[in-house]
Amino acid sequence: VQLQASGGGLVQAGGSLRLSCATSGNSRSFVSMGWYRQAPGKQRELVAIAGSAGWTKYADSVKGRFTISRDNAKNAVSLQMNNLKPEDTAAYYCNAVESSMAAYWGQGTLVTVSS
């Protein structure tokens, strides 16, 4: 299974970016797909996650600003990020978990928010 993330870049505070993650090598549905981020010197943290049944979960720091969406048919997930803040600067990783609990990670895409 491979995950390919895209959409990162440099944006000014208050701007928007959309991250996308496509998967290949797996025809089965993932029980969850989501996004994590890791800033320099910090641990990787959950940003948003979406279950195959339609539930979603967000980090408190991004609620109301970020929206996760997934396409179950394509095994793809996206993250719309609005009103970005400098503290959102990090490498963003997409994640997918199978019903066997096997987890897969994308290569990471860098988001830089300037003040």
Helix content: under 10%
The averaged pLDDT comes out at 95
Q: Radius of gyration in whole Å, from Cα?
A: 13 Å
**What distance lies between the first and last C-alpha atoms, to the nearest angstrom?**
37 Å
User: What multimeric state do the chains show?
Assistant: single chain
Task: Estimate the strand proportion.
Answer: over 45%
| Spatial shape | globular
Number of helices: 0
Structural class by secondary-structure content:
mainly beta
Tell me the series of helices and strands, N- to C-terminal: EEEEEEEEEEE
Number of strands: 11
Instruction: Let me know the largest β-sheet.
Output: 7 strands, mixed
Low-pLDDT stretches: none
Short summary:
This protein is an all-beta fold and 115 residues long. The chain has strands spanning 2-6, 9-12, 17-24, 32-38, 45-51, 56-58, 66-71, 76-81, 90-97, 103-105, 109-114. Helix content is 0%, strand content 55%.
Break the fold down into its secondary structure elements and pairings.
Elements: E1 2-6, E2 9-12, E3 17-24, E4 32-38, E5 45-51, E6 56-58, E7 66-71, E8 76-81, E9 90-97, E10 103-105, E11 109-114
Parallel strand pairs: 2-11
Antiparallel strand pairs: 1-3, 3-8, 4-5, 4-9, 5-6, 7-8, 9-10, 9-11
